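Regression test case RT-17, inverse folding.

Input:
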């Protein structure tokens, strides 16, 4: 029986953002822009930046925050809550550190 080929993607694991949480928060545009900008800045120059994917509800529904996950954290069911655009860099660093630790 032939083994299926293993493919390495050209970009890091995607970042998933709850669309419903983003719609309910005051600074939605600022947070969405910050997530996209920080994910592009964090990508190595030799690789593409991770995709930012707006998803349906994760079922957490915090009062004044947006639910973000990606990579190994998404597989484990762990989430990061982002309340302001200033917190985005730290949240994405948390997701990125977890990916590099598991590889």
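Golden output:
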């Amino acid at each position: 029986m032939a083994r299926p080929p293993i493919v390495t993607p050209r970009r890091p694991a995607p970042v998933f953002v709850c669309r419903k949480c983003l719609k309910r928060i005051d600074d939605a545009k600022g947070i969405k822009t910050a997530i996209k900008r920080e994910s592009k800045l964090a990508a190595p120059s030799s690789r593409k930046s991770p995709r930012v994917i707006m998803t349906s509800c994760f079922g957490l529904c915090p009062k004044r925050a947006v639910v973000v996950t990606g990579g190994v954290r998404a597989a484990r069911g762990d989430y990061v809550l982002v309340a302001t655009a200033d917190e985005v860099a730290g949240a994405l660093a948390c997701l990125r550190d977890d990916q590099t630790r598991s590889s």
